[in-house]
From TrEMBL:
Coiled coil: none annotated. It holds the Pfam family Glycos_transf_2. The keyword Protease does not apply. The lineage of its organism: Bacteria, Pseudomonadati, Bacteroidota, Flavobacteriia, Flavobacteriales. Residues 4-128 form the Glycosyltransferase 2-like domain. Keywords: Transferase. One of its GO terms (molecular function) is hexosyltransferase activity. CDD domains: Glyco_tranf_GTA_type. The keyword ATP-binding does not apply. This is Glycosyltransferase family 2 protein.
Length: 311
């Protein structure tokens, strides 16, 4: 295997070198693509020093040297990556020694275009730990609950399997054939400043044949610290609803132009409308109504008769 590891860099000076070193440990990693997004700390200087450390490390910035967000930054990395396989790593996280263990065997199956696994957690500050646990309880492993591949991955991510599939798998655990991305013209939605990873993963699960790899133990570690954006937003707050509405609108627009299975289209549409309505009304009770309707289709048939449910 030959792998390009794409690392978007923004204000990560404290963690960046550890992230890069964790990728350099693998013979399969032939290239580390650092894409610096106009940090306000000394991340750019560290990137430049790392580039002198190993010939596998290349550094890029946006043409205007500006800040464009994680989506655009990863897209630039995809454009520059030269290897047959692509993997991602956040600059405040790191790989474990078993990171590409499953890939060596599973990618021998030509139909498999992407492999994902489980990610663990390291608390880097007490404040970060408290914020994370307040939002996600005592989750120590972000993973899926059972092996899956093909369409079952898409349906699992949308909550349409007979048993709970689990949480979204993390980009840090995803390895892809670059040819599959190019064939399907898959990129991150640059209009989403947050959740562009969730948007990308759901679209990827439809367009590409994904298969689970190591899901019972961590293959990478997510660093939890004071500045993790995902822990700052209170669930079902106006800001949370706004960000979720933007995510599901992006997915709904995409679903309208692709022949997804009907149950997948319906789930995306209902989820989008739930957040959109909650945002417009300011009342979370409507959101709860839609979530219950999505969980139990019988409710749609009997108690709640919204005309757009039959769209």
């Amino acid at each position: 295997m030959n792998i390009s590891v794409i690392i978007p860099v923004y204000n990560a000076s404290e963690f960046l070198e550890k992230a890069v070193d964790s990728a350099l440990q693998f013979e399969e990693v032939k290239e580390i693509v650092l894409v610096e997004d106009k940090s306000t700390d000394n991340s750019l200087e560290i990137c430049q020093k790392l580039g002198l450390k190993d010939s596998r490390i290349t550094l890029y910035q946006h043409p205007d040297k500006g800040n464009h967000g994680a989506g655009a930054t990863r897209n630039l990395g995809l454009e520059k990556a030269a290897c047959e396989f692509i993997s991602f790593l956040d600059a405040d996280d790191y790989y474990l020694p078993n990171r590409f263990e499953a890939e060596k065997e599973i990618f021998k199956e030509q139909k498999v275009e992407g492999i994902f696994g489980a990610i663990g957690i390291e608390y880097l500050s007490e404040k970060g730990r408290k914020e994370f646990q307040d939002k996600f309880k005592n989750i120590s492993l972000t993973t899926v609950n059972f092996p899956a591949e093909g369409e079952d991955v898409l349906k699992g991510l949308l909550g349409l399997t007979s048993k709970m599939f689990g949480t979204f798998f993390h980009l840090n655990t995803l390895t892809l054939r670059k040819s599959a991305l190019m064939k399907n013209n898959l990129r991150f939605n640059e209009n989403l400043r947050v959740h562009q990873d969730s948007d990308f993963i759901i679209k990827l699960a439809y367009h590409c044949y994904l298969k689970s790899g190591v899901i019972d133990k961590a293959i990478a570690i997510r660093g939890v610290h004071d500045n993790n954006r995902i822990t700052k937003i209170i669930r079902y707050s106006p800001q949370y609803n706004q960000r979720q509405s933007l995510l599901w609108k992006s997915l709904n627009d995409w679903a309208d132009s692709n022949p997804l299975p009907p149950d997948c289209k319906r789930k995306i549409y209902l989820t989008y409308k739930s957040f959109d309505l909650s945002l417009k009304t300011g009342f979370n009770k409507y959101l709860c109504t839609f979530i219950e309707a999505i969980k139990n289709p019988q409710i749609i048939k009997t108690q709640y008769r919204f005309t757009y449910l039959n769209r």
